[in-house]
Amino acid sequence: MKKVILLSYYYPPCNYVPSSRVKSFVESLNKKNYSVTVFTRQWTGEESTWLDYISSSREQEIVVKSENENEIYYLPFKELEYPKTRIISKLVTLYKLCRGHLQAEVGLQQFNFINAYCKKHRKEIKFILISSPPYNLIKIGYKIYKELKIPFIADIRDYENNRILDDLRGGLRSRLDFSLNNFWMRRWVKKAQLISVVNKEFFHHFKQYNKKVIEIRNGFSQSNFTEISSRISKDPQKFQIGLIGTIYPQQDYKMLFEVVRKFLDENKGDHIIIKLIGLKSIEAVSNEVANILSNDPRVIITGRVSFEHATQELLKSDLLVYPAWKGSKGRYSTKIFEYLGSGNKILICPGDDDVIDELVKDGGKGFVANTFNEALDYLNVCYQMKLNADYYLPTYSTVQSVLQYSREYQNDLLIHEIEASMTTEN
């Protein structure tokens, strides 16, 4: 098999969203006859908050595990300590940015170990695939390329979102940080064999520095959905509304939950259940939503759960709801792809007049409501259809328009482009 190196801060058992994208890369590469050596940090799988994700690992020795054709190097991680004085801390951060140490609070801290491994296996390695953020992983790929001439591919999920997606200029310090990040990233990605990004906004930004850019969206795992759906079924006696994933304070979520509150007030009985999976990840949002819903016993709110658990609840739901981002461009939510993959009906409230609205409408699975009454009417229609046993539930795996949003489909596009770029280079 051909050998590939994959650098990613996030990887299972870490249950943060990027882990799923990276794990799917490994699975798709295996199917194309590549063995993958992954370098990641150590995780317990119990992490649920941002502080957990940047905390020191429990073990301080490198742990190596074999998975089929692959090797996973779980590297120890030491939490970055900043000066307690705020002004000094800011000056230290600025100094690091000037020196090209981007997002220093996260990353893989064993460059020499990774570089030595690549040097030892230099003739076997076809390319290095890098999952970013953190940005500093691209620096590792750049440095290895400069020394060993091993080509690297930069897969960029997020990049200066406030500036590029939200067009928020910020103050002087924010503009300075953006300029420094951009200075170093521009230097590094110019040498990339290929850049993959998740939306058109990033595509146009990085196209300025490297002509070889491709859009590879997030998606749902068709294989996982197929396996999990074979073991569960919807409750014919219940009408379950589901929201799966984190909701952020910047999202316009109040109207959606006020609609749900009105629906619950008008429809009594325990045959209705509302499951908000992962909402407790941000306490302020969770508390406000619980208050809007008057702590109704039919509402279940959880923190972050395993991918398996989240997928089960997603597939069990009769209607999936989500408040899109307002005032942003290109802000896909990974969960929207999973919503589409489930085959369930979807209510977006409010819409974003952008990519979320387009996805839901193109998939033919949902409704975008921008007013209270539109959302309530659609919710009641879905409820009546369930009561009348007239609820249409298509099999997601047979809908071709949805399959293009699977991780498998997107990964095949990426691997094809990588191989094509290698052929062109040769």
Keywords:
single chain; alpha/beta; eight-stranded mixed sheet; 14 strands
Task: Give the total of beta strands.
Answer: 14
Low-confidence stretches: 393-398
Q: Give the helix proportion (percent range).
A: 40-55%
Radius of gyration: 23 Å
The class by helix and strand makeup works out as alpha/beta
How many H/I helical runs? 17
Shape: globular
**First-to-last CA distance:** 20 Å
**Major sheet details:** 8 strands, mixed
Beta-strand residue fraction: 15-25%
* Assembly state of the chains shown: single chain
* Strand order of the biggest β-sheet: 3-4-2-1-5-6-7-8
Mean pLDDT: 89
Describe the structure.
The protein has 426 residues and is of the alpha/beta class. The chain contains 17 helices and 14 strands. Strands 3-4-2-1-5-6-7-8 form an eight-stranded mixed sheet, sandwiched between helices. It has a six-stranded parallel sheet with strand order 11-10-9-12-13-14, sandwiched between helices. α1 packs across α17. It is globular and about 65 Å long. About 1% of the residues have low confidence.
Write the layout of secondary structure elements.
Layout: E1 2-7, H1 17-31, E2 34-41, H2 50-53, E3 63-67, E4 70-75, H3 86-98, H4 111-120, E5 125-132, H5 136-148, E6 152-156, H6 161-164, H7 172-189, E7 194-197, H8 200-207, E8 213-215, H9 222-229, E9 239-244, H10 254-266, E10 272-277, H11 283-292, E11 299-301, H12 307-316, E12 319-322, H13 334-342, E13 345-348, H14 355-363, E14 366-368, H15 372-387, H16 400-403, H17 407-425
Parallel strand pairs: 1-2, 1-5, 2-4, 5-6, 6-7, 7-8, 9-10, 9-12, 10-11, 12-13, 13-14
Antiparallel strand pairs: 3-4
